[in-house]
Design a protein that fits this description.
The chain has helices spanning 4-13, 16-19, 33-38, 45-63, 72-78, 83-96, 100-117, 124-135. It has a single domain, classed as Helicase, Ruva Protein, domain 3. The chain has 8 helices and no strands. It has 140 residues and is mostly helical. 64% of the residues lie in helices and 0% in strands.
Length: 140
Amino acid sequence: MPTSDQVARYQGRLSGPLLDRIDMMVEVPGLPPELLAAAPDGDDTATVAQPVQQARERQRARQDCVNAQLSPPQLDRHARADPAAQALLERSIAALGWSARAQHRLLRVARSIADLAGDDAIQKAHVAEAVQLRRALVRQ
């Protein structure tokens, strides 16, 4: 298991343009086998797949493609954030020094989170979640 310093050094070797092409990064800590064995069963695949399928259908109905395929002009049309969400997005982009490409990826993820929640507009909570999913990519 690599240490946090090793991970930071490795990420430091990755270029900004490469990191811009990664949408999300989720850290999953290692667990001892006895904890894994004692963990309750999770949802089955069909249960998890249903809301994902509904979100993809919502995307296709709205824009004739899934969010991952939206061009920047399409993002402007279909991934509008409410004022509080837009303010958080702008503050996060500025504070974390993210590029326009990273901003577009963040908007696609926030749009997908909103679709999974069944919301028409991107709200502050959707942007906050998208930032957290991407923030692990920031070099410290």
